[in-house]
């Protein structure tokens, strides 16, 4: 019984510490001019052209399927109209280098689909 209570407290503490907000930066090392946090669970279009990197947070969910996301990248002039490239990742806290010539980004849950631009 005590073990169950301790386990529930540990799970609750992990959820409280969870971070789902990615930040885009101007440089390639996630250190200069960080933008406002963007929720990984929101699939909306981000016009972040010219950015050099994005810090992917540690959601605290480990390698669970619910912790897999896709960064969809549009390189053409159309904002989020298609997928030029993508990156499937587990949100464990890392800096992803971006191509500053890319035009827009969006996060979706799960694995990436095929490019369609």
Automatic annotation (TrEMBL):
Record's keyword annotation contains Signal: yes
Keyword Signal: yes
Signal peptide positions (record): 1-18
Highest taxon, organism lineage: Eukaryota
Keywords linked to the UniProt accession: Signal
Stated name of the protein: Secreted protein
Source organism of the structure: Roridomyces roridus
The organism's taxonomic lineage, starting at the top: Eukaryota, Fungi, Dikarya, Basidiomycota, Agaricomycotina
């Amino acid at each position: 019984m005590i073990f169950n209570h301790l386990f529930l407290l540990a799970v609750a503490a992990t959820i409280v510490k969870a971070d789902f907000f990615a930040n885009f930066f101007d440089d390639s090392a996630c250190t200069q001019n960080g933008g406002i946090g963007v929720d990984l669970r929101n699939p909306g279009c981000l016009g972040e052209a010219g950015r050099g990197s994005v810090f992917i947070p540690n959601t605290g969910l480990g390698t669970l399927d619910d912790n897999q996301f896709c960064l969809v990248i549009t390189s053409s002039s159309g904002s989020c109209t298609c997928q030029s490239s993508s990156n499937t990742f587990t949100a464990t806290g890392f800096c992803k280098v971006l191509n500053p010539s890319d035009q827009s980004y969006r996060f979706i849950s799960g694995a990436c689909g095929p490019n369609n631009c």
